[in-house]
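Write out the 3D structure for:
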Amino acid sequence: MRATHLTPRTLTLGTAGHIDHGKTTLLRALTRIDTDRLPEEKQRGITIDIGFAHLDLGDFCLGIVDVPGHERFIKNMLAGAVGIDLSLLVVAADDSVMPQTREHLAILQMLGIRHGLVVITKCDRAEPTWLDLVEDEIRTLVAGTFLEAAPIVRTAVPASGPPWGLDELRAAIASVCQRAGSRQETDVFRLPIDRAFSVQGLGTVVTGTVWSGRLGVRDEVEWLPAGKKLVVRGLQNHGHNVDSVTRGQRAAINLIGVHHGEILRGHELATADYLAPSKLLTVDLQVLSDSPRPIKHRSRQRLYVGTQEVMVAVSLLEGDSIEPGQRGLAQLYCAEPAMAAAGQSFVMRAESPLVTIGGGRVLQPRANRITKRQIERFERLAALGSIDEAPRAAAALYFYGIKAWTELDLCRDANLPRERCHAIVQELQASGRCVELQVKPHRTLRIHRDVLQESQQRILNLLRQLHVESPLWPAIPRDQLLVSYQAAHDRPVIDAIVNCLIDHGVLRGDDRAVALADFVPQLTALQTHLREQIIAALHEAGLKPPDPATLCQAFSAPESEVRQVLDLCAAQGELVHLGGDWYLHPQVEADLRQRLKQALQTSGGLTMSQIRELLETSRKYAVPICEHLDRIGFTRRNGDLRVLHQ
């Protein structure tokens, strides 16, 4: 049955297979395009780098990526395999299954390819009985893989004489295309770059397979990892100028604002502010069953993600090794920033010798360090790999902690379509898993419910600890709490969480200091006696109070203890803190206000000198007294005069 698309559906087909098995020759016969473009490839007769062709099948328009088969060029094969929708595994009749046949199949499996077919080439060089044996060997090879039930087509492109089997191959490809389901659509644009060069009169051009989204002429796109915004001057698809390119198409993009020599294979173009290059990834890592070795904790390996190759140090979160055929959680410490999104597949090869040993999926493309002791986080990591959107989004939200995030961040970190993010966040809010925290009058932070509860508990634990360390302090300065929390850059958020606890009666305090609601300073017998001595001394001193140093000498007490008692007395209303080192007895402070009120009511205001004479004290005390009265709203300044505050 033919598909009923109004326009041809665009898909990308990639070749795979051992060197000299006829991939390029087959494509030349199938498409009339020679994918070997380099002079060295023509001279040596082997494919070195990836090449490109296209095939029109009516209902389907295929972009074709031809990859090298030599083991030395697996790196290039990996770059070409990025973004393909279906694979054409090529096996030569005269060689049958060879080492790179197996390795390429393993790579395709790790990259999450789910559709394809197998082609036996050079069938004119083998007897029918031998071809049956080759086909049996292929069936054994692909058992348990995405090609297990795939069609196997026999072809030949003889040096002399017409090729045969190509019509059957076209029909088989069309059949596989019909079975290939559409990828999850999103308007987020991504294109891993596989080539960058200069065209005279145009400037910088990059090529790649559009992984997702759409890009149009004059659109702005971000170049990663540089993080630079560039403008699209022009677009081509298979040599034809177009107004836009979409998912699955090969694209040549003419960029404004960058030299082609700055762009390398492995870089990427994406919707602005979507990708976040990171040197630490959390992954679900699987070791191939036929890997020659396990992957050990702290081993160095080669990571292939997108079109990028980067050296990584593997930190296993479960055990000291992952054996062949097994899987486990790991964090990858990258030698240079890697660009990825949650759910993206990757391949891992040994540092030396260069053999493919595993692969898997990215769980966190921008991770924080997780230790083996943080077992409670492992369940959250597992949720990032869920097939359901809401658990993935909730897990990503949890790992944001108290950091601000955007819907583009959630799209990247929870593997969500951009257009679904808003609805999913609303769903999480409705279920109570996502809560809103009012940080500032015009700023609201959405955080995971468990993050809020954990942050509140951490604040309560810190306050208990600080109360033990400073038992005479009636309240802990917010600045000190913030230092203990080790989140100075998140002060508005921490303040909002503290205010939430105050609103619920768990804490008491103000903008300067807070305490547990049930905390009462505990004084020893000696401290109680010291408090009584200090209060009496300040009452007797009147408007010429002693400073803490003088009190220390008078009562033979440590200055730190004297200051703590002074602060405690001020907090409990037994003393009035004027500021700095000066305290007054409350009765003395009340008397001076009464005297000043009478004098100010009968005058147009008093200068500092007049106030000093009225109170019969020195300027040393008069200045902090006047500043205190201004601060509490008893007086206000009017030029050089103080007047009663109306």
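The CA atoms of residues 393 and 414 lie 5 Å apart.
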